[in-house]
């Protein structure tokens, strides 16, 4: 069963809320407050999963460190704060689940979450480009809720990172993990670390590329799952225009559906701003026309495409643009695992090894849902429950 089939199954059961929410309704986690674990945990990666895992360990008073390959935290929640007067999400942009996820992650009823989001109206805000014209229609997938003058990154920066900042060690690219002894040995280019448990949150594409070598080798079923999941390529761009001439979101049919997704959308939607920013989100084969172009070729291509769709209104209103090619990010090398992947492979990805190696992250889940920030956070909650 693929994720899409799982979604259909949930709808057949009579649950008719947006599909990401259906999945969330099918499964949500709570953190156990009790712990019997005494020992040290090493977390590899400071994205949504690694930060959530560290935050929860900190709440429980368990010793831990986070080793992060880059010089910043956030991973695929990366933002740009210089382009315009609200944060531009270069990776994760929408909230695909109920707002209760914020409290689920914060796990402290005395903390009031002030991050705001706004829903879309699928009947009026969604359009489809088909037959050379834009008309109101089903995008084929839900984008659910947009953050208002904030982002997933800001949520983590505000509520999760402050209590654990001093436990994140930056510029530590983990390249070997030896779990043959009781004490696990983790090495980076210039340092060694030991721990009783290790939580791996690196994007699965990097494991496919053999970035980390394991001793002993990971079990056969785990290696098969790692090597056989389809990781979609990922590309985003943002263009500022002097006028708004486009609807809230325009979807494009990618054929076959399993090959990817493409969307032009109003990135200023719901923001307290009078700037007009159009976003391009594309994954899988949808990225092909864009991701190998130079910057000037890219903007020429996009303006020509948009002029064709919106009656020549793009070139005449163009101000500036930025883009993000996720295939070129050294510690991601792609966007995320295809929505239509086989859920059994995903479940295998999420399983722990020898009660020593634990996998948390957007795709290391139980197989019900994957490839979003909330799935990364929930997999971290599940992992911390399992360890402690
Ligand atoms: C273009 C795009 C659009 C998206 N849109 C949405 C959206 O709208 N809504 C949504 O919910 N999700 C969206 N996502 C998915 C979401 O961004 C991810 O699912 C989530 O951020 C992944 O979190 P993570 O912790 O699993 O992994 P990551 O964020 O990738 O974090 C892993 C961390 O590990 C570090 N690392 C990697 N290798 C090593 C190593 N060897 N040693 C040490 N550190 C290492 C990396 O630098 C990184 O910081 C989008 C993603 C992309 C790319």
UniProtKB/TrEMBL annotation:
Q: Which residues form the Amine oxidase domain?
A: 165-383
What are the protein's UniProt keywords?
Auxin biosynthesis
Please tell me which top-level EC class this enzyme sits in.
Answer: oxidoreductase
Reactions catalysed according to its record: L-tryptophan + O2 = indole-3-acetamide + CO2 + H2O
Record-listed E.C. numbers? 1.13.12.3
The protein's name is Tryptophan 2-monooxygenase
State the family it belongs to: Belongs to the tryptophan 2-monooxygenase family.
Give, as in the UniProt entry, the pathway in which the protein acts: Plant hormone metabolism; auxin biosynthesis
Question: Does RNA-binding appear among the keywords?
Answer: no
